[in-house]
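Dear support,

I submitted the protein below through the web form. The confirmation email said the job was done, but the results page showed an empty box. After a refresh the structure appeared. I'm attaching both so you can tell me whether what I see now is the final result or a partial one.
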Amino acid sequence: MLPIAGSLQFDVVGVAPVSIHGDTYYDLLVQNEQHKQTGQAAKLRVPSHALANGQPPQPGERVNLTFLMQQVTRCEVLPPSA
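What the results page shows now:
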């Protein structure tokens, strides 16, 4: 379940752009450790204005997603771990 407010980290498995009434969103297919254990993933819709650097994340990247009322309000790509 997504938090009402707060942040969670996920690994991006897939990205698909979506246009809704002329606004661009991105459907992210993501996994956390629980998803990986069960072989599942979650699909989260991210508005383009929530992208920290203006570009959608790419599969294989790790992101920190900030939520408010269970909606993504910020998507930040994390640097690769050493």
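Response: this is the final, complete result; the empty box was a page-load delay. Residues 33-38 form the longest helix (6 residues).
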